[in-house]
Amino acid sequence: MSEDFLPLNGTDYVELYVGNAKQSALYYQYAFGYELIAYAGPETGIRDRASYVLKQGKIRLVLTSPLQTGGIISDHILKHGDGVKVLALWVDDAEKSWLETTSRGAESESEPKVLSDQFGEVKVASIKTYGDTIHTFVERKNYTGVFLPGYMPRKSTYTPTTIGLMYIDHCVGNVALGEMNKWVEFYENVMGFKLLITFDDKDISTEYSALMSKVVSNGNGYVKFPINEPAEGKKKSQIEEYLDFYNGPGVQHMAIATDDIIHTVGELRKRGVEFLEVPASYYDDLLDRVGKIDEDLQPLKDLNILVDRDEEGYLLQIFTKPVQDRPTLFFEIIQRKGAKSFGKGNFKALFEAIEREQELRGNL
Ligand code: FE2
To answer: Which residue from 8, 11, 10 is spatially nearest to 100, judged by alpha carbons?
Structure first.
């Protein structure tokens, strides 16, 4: 086996560019149970933006808004609405990561640089991926501060209790028709990822619309990026709807792992988070389809949690509705009980649920 030229320790953080980071930060604290841990802005010597860092389990979300009109952040929001800008990857050597990837054809977003403050130094470097999304390599072995140099610790007077969100299981990109293979090859050739699974339009087709998907994973399996493209259907694919409203390729959803999905989803629902609903009939023959599971059926049915099984075990999952008014970014909550797959048995029910929402929006 050849050596992994891009060893990754996992996802370092995910940064969203949003219209109002102050309010978004409170939404993710109240509704999703994240804790505010750090802030950067005018008060910390950053003049052009305000960034809030939220944490739960191993997940770090950064919410950033521009302070003035014009500039990269402002233009990003104007074009895309709220969305994911940075999928940051935790590495031991940021410069080597940048060199290995750019020498294999990655387009550089920013060259390796050292950020430092009294807590030490962090090396960062970024490359472009699909659309306006970027990957930032973060090397933090010589840093003891709360997040990155320039950020100060910050607490909220509201201290949420965790709802059990543990880590990012996978992060999905939507790309244009005919571009899926190009981006799969990018992750294979430029980042050293391996193709894990292919779903064609026969796997993922409802009566009306279709999509195709391939999942790539890094060497140790800590980072998984499914890539979707629209496929021909009778009506508009959900991926096309995304591309229309995001104005191009971008992150469609982040799947967050929990080890108690009934608790997590119960809390999210209590706090007003909206989910896609599948018909009650989904549960009629569920146990015939997936076999014996540890959970009682009733709470799964009450919370509309879906179940799927593969050769290695089963998984429980649910999708939120989009978390902004544009039908773009949403979250998946997933609990794996041995299964390493992505819920193929639920695609039809889920995509029909998405189509009902598309129909309501007049976009089917
Ligand atoms: Fe997913």
So the answer is: 8
